[in-house]
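Wed. Picked up where I left off yesterday with Polyketide biosynthesis 3-hydroxy-3-methylglutaryl-ACP synthase PksG. The coffee machine is broken again, so keeping this brief.
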Amino acid sequence: MKIGIDKLGFYAPHLYVDMNDLAEARGIDPGKFTIGLGQDEMAVPPITQDPVSLAANAAEQILDREDKDAIDLVIFGTESGVDHSKSAAVYVHQLLGLNPKARSVEMKQACYGATAGIQMAKGHIALHPDKKVLILASDIARYGLNTPGESTQGAGAVAILVSAEPRLLELESESTYYTEDIMDFWRPVYSSTAFVDGKYSNEQYIAFFQKVWKDYQEQTGRSLEDFAAIAFHLPYTKMGWKALRTVIEDAPEAVQERLKNNYQISTKYNRNVGNIYTGSLYLSLISLLENQDDLKEGDTIGLYSYGSGAVGEFLSGKLQNGFKKHLQTASHQAMFDNRECISVAAYEKVFEEALPTDGSEKQLNVDEDPAKICLAGVKDHIRSYAVK
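Structure written out below (tokens, as returned):
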């Protein structure tokens, strides 16, 4: 029985800031952002979008009634959850009108949470092949205005439907993973922004990739020649290339060119959204599938997942017959086309808007947000959402 990804959806806020404008406002050479980091635009979430609403909007576009009735497990991977106790998955479960006879939980391990959810989903489907699992990867990356990490912010969500006999990507059984307790990136419960040792984190990202790739080769006997493409977790789009180039030199020239070209294609959406933490790898996968016409049935796609702190994993999947018919290319392109570029001053104003932290009431105007599902306010310590 095949188990894998049946549907993929993505949602980003309707606002963004151009990285050239941000660089100019900060007195920085724009090339440091557009070339050094590989980022062109950065999604800016209005106060009416939080990780719950982003995830619900991503899932809403791909689920039909049959899916909603078959889903009996919802796993929400995030590192920017809205409650220390209640899972974000429960909110989304209600907003989407899913089958009430379901489990709904939240996963946390930095940017690795969604991958952990996918592996759990595979086991669940193996036992219950008539069911489906909804994986949600949703985050808002915040480092603060005028901080070193400001240029690697972003916001967005990916929805992944896992099932038997998937129409997009069969997930293979072989995968390799590695855990080590390190402090490259973390956010204590008392802080609204993360702490990061950038140079160290880059080094560990690459080191973890080299470990799990070597283990994968030894376990499977495969080489780079066996892959049509490898998609990476992308805190910024140059990061994955820094890792790939450490192992690519021994491959035949044609293989190097194929992997390098497909890597660049996989970064297209990430370049225009920024860092979405848990969903970044799967946004890279969506970008690859929707923008590379040369991919075909049976091609093997590698996936490198990394979550600071740290856990890394290399997994793989095979493209299915007719997979292109089940992509959301047109709707995703329309979403990008309809976004609004805002000035740096407007971005700063949006960034500084916040929900009260003292328990007071705040109602939000959702009319200015074109999303179908929005955060509508907070009252009596309870968040409320609007479904238009």
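Quick read: Residues 169-321 form a domain with the Peroxisomal Thiolase; Chain A, domain 1 fold (CATH 3.40.47.10).
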